[in-house]
Amino acid sequence: MKVLVTGAAGFIGYHLSKRLMGEGHIVVGLDNINDYYDVNLKYARLNELGIQRGDAERWNVLCESDKFKGSFTFVRMHLENRDELPTLFKNEGFDVVCNLAAQAGVRYSLENPEAYIDSNVVGFLNILESCRHNNIKHLLYASSSSVYGESNKPVFSVDDNVDYPISLYAATKKSNELMAFTYSHLYGIPTTGLRFFTVYGPWGRPDMAMFLFTKAISENNPIKVFNNGDMSRDFTYIDDIINGITIALNNLPENKVPYRLTNIGNGNPQSLMEFIEAIEEHMGKEAEKVFLPMQAGDVPRTAADTSELEKLGYKSTTSINEGVKAFIDWYKGFYNI
Question: Is this model's pTM higher than 0.90 or not?
Answer without folding.
Answer: yes
